[in-house]
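Protein 1 of 2
SEQ + STRUCT:
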Amino acid sequence: MTLIGFLVLLAIAAICGAIGQSIAGYDLGGCLVSIIVGFIGAYLGMWLAGKMGLPEFFTINIQGKPFPIIWSVIGSALFTLIVALIRRAVLGGRRY
């Protein structure tokens, strides 16, 4: 994978992570955190889709590497909700 392909993949993951955080209504951090949330969301979403027997749709191939857009957004929203619930339980509703 070339540098341009990798940067495009990072940009798509950041957008998916940001959309997932917006859907969840909770912001975990900035751009770098959105990239990480996007990749974690892609893995979580594809795992859930595989367990439920749901098809993989709207996948973007970047230099041979598939990236599931819809499952990444859904997985990002679920991951953000889980992290928000854990933070609320640990911090008692306080945000620093």
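Protein 2 of 2
SEQ + STRUCT:
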Amino acid sequence: MLLFLAAGALIGWFYGQLLWGLLAAALLALAWQVRQLLSFDRALRTDNFDDFRIGEGIWEQIYSKFRFERDRGLRQKAVNRQLLREIRNSTDAMPDGAVVLDANNEIVACNRAAKGLAGLKRKKDRGQRIDNILRDPKLIGLINSNDHQQSVEIPSPITDGDWLNCRVVPYGAEQKLLLLRDVTERIRLSKMRRDFVANASHELRSPLTVISGYLDALSDAGDLPADWVKPVTQMRNQSLRMKHILTEMLELSQLEGAGSASRNENIDVVQLLNDVRIDFDRPADAAEIKVNAESSATILGRKAEIESVVVNLLSNALRYTPQSGEINLTWRSSSDGAELIVKDTGEGIDPEHIPRLTERFFRVDRGRSRGEGGIGLGLAIVKHVLVRHDAELEIKSEPGSGSEFRCVFPPDRVKVATPTALS
């Protein structure tokens, strides 16, 4: 380029027009460069570089660099295409359905199992909102809540009698992954178990009532031989214990098969706590029970079930709190909801056992629980009652420092009395 410009300047100098010669050479060089630029642009658009004149200098470097980057891009594209094919094959092999949703809950992609479980179609449903296809209110609430720890179970949209477990987890930038799992077998087994427990408990109550009647008659008989007094008393106590167990099993079976509790009853919790404290059948040497009413708010739900929660929590507290201890029943409310707290100064619970306390038939001290008549269903009943009332059970305890059972009710279950204006 410099030689070309120098030649133009030399020719102009030869004719006595040095600047005009340099300008003419610069214009010719610019025209050639523009021609090369347009030719390169046309080659890029048509992907035909046969007619592109490489020339020398910078255009040779540009074309060489472009060809290198294009070849590398093609190789990377092939790798990505193979990787995408492998990912798609692996997701299609999954037995669970997977649906990728964007920030607007629109379907980005789904695997083959999502079609079999929920009837989704990859091409047809792409770009559609998931709540326009799967219209279950519980699923829509889960997706909008962005709660990645919870899951819901919904009826299958394509097969009557089948059930799906749904969970939402983060996935990519401003995306989430909806996971669908077939839990039909587990639901059916759970229903069979509940039906078996309910039927067995119901059938056992009739013969047990007859046995208890005869044992009561023998116990009240004045002419009972001395050798029979202790065995009859033991059999009578065990029959009463068995009746209590059957009652709890029936109650738990009914709670497991029930949905959300109605909001027809307005429960005065403070009055309920006082009634339970007064009427509770406890030994004379039991720990003292106090009621702390920090709110006059009421609960919308079923009174019998809330009373069952208080009775079961109070029974556990009395069982593990010494006579010198104290049990506090506290009721408080705020804008975030309400809390029913049962706190004792008893033995406490090892933290490793706390996650399992609400399991059926779980007992921390099996020997002691059996001796005092418990079988590990009380806290399971408490948990299911609270679930029916959209509430949660929080447990805090340390060995030797007592325990605190906190029932947290949501604001929509709590009714606060409207202040009356002074006349």
